[in-house]
Amino acid sequence: MGDSALIVQLGDSLGEVLNALRRLEAANIPGATDIAPAFASVAVFLESPANLEIAEAAIRAVLGKKRSAKTARPRLMEVPVCYDREFALDLAIVARHCELSPNEVVKRHAAADYRVRCLGFTPGFPFLAGLPATLATPRRQTPRTAVPAGAVAIGGRQTGVYPLPSPGGWNIIGRTPLSLFDITREPAALLRAGDRVRFCAITREEFEQWEK
Fold first, then answer.
1. Which of 27, 87, 88, 100 is at a distance of 20 to 30 A from 208, taking alpha carbons?
2. C-alpha–C-alpha distance, residues 104 and 138, integer Å
């Protein structure tokens, strides 16, 4: 991947990706500056091209060993969401597409158990698997030039949360008062690959109090 990164291709399994990620993180790969999981791969970013051959050998050695049967228990993160009409800009569109009432869309969205497959698009943006099939909705034909931070949205068979103001083409159905990405925190991203996520519906008044 360019002259200073390597891609480890894996199966489309969250467990397989997380296992490789944890093993590589613990291995202290020579020259590695960052290790980032995706849907079916893990990228290892290096300080310079000079580290490529040494890093490749180290990665092959680490992943060639018999994997441990032990897996880390995923964190459960609760994310409050206000599904008020003011924040749910596309809730009516999703409801029409799914042939459900807006209230039923909210109920099903908040009742599901999600897993963070990876972070990307913008810093800290979680791609969440586990959206009920009945809520799958195509992305907007015309993306918005500006989506507010905290917007909770549906794009195809996934749901996610915009951590920062940015353009975006997913269908917005609510907003969270939580800050999913803060450069002053360590780590800056609130969520990480493998986390379980549950959305908790809150009122407009609770949203205002949360911000304070």
1. 100
2. 18
Between CA 32 and CA 35 the distance in angstroms is: 7
Range of 22's domain?
Answer: 5-64
Measured from the Cβ of residue 147, the count of other Cβ atoms closer than 10 Å reads 20
Q: Which candidate, 121, 18, 5, places its Cα nearest to that of 67?
A: 18
Low-confidence ranges of the chain (pLDDT < 70): 67-72, 211-212
- Shared domain for 184 and 81, answered yes or no, is yes
Token pair in block for residue 210: 């949360």
**pLDDT at site 70:** 60
Claim to verify: residue 123 and residue 34 sit in the same structural domain: no
Q: For residue range 107-134, list pLDDT tens digits in order.
A: 999 999 999 999 988 999 999 999 999 9
Percent of the chain with pLDDT over 70: 96
Nearest to 75 by CA among 191, 163, 182, 161: 191
**Amino acid type, 16:** E
Locate 13 and state its tokens.
Answer: 């399994």
Contacts of 211 (CB under 8 A, 6+ apart): 177
Give whole-number Cα distances, 85 to 92, 129, 168, 190, in Å.
Answer: 9, 25, 19, 26
- Packing angle, helices 102-111 and 91-98, rounded to 10: 90
Q: pLDDT value at position 92?
A: 97
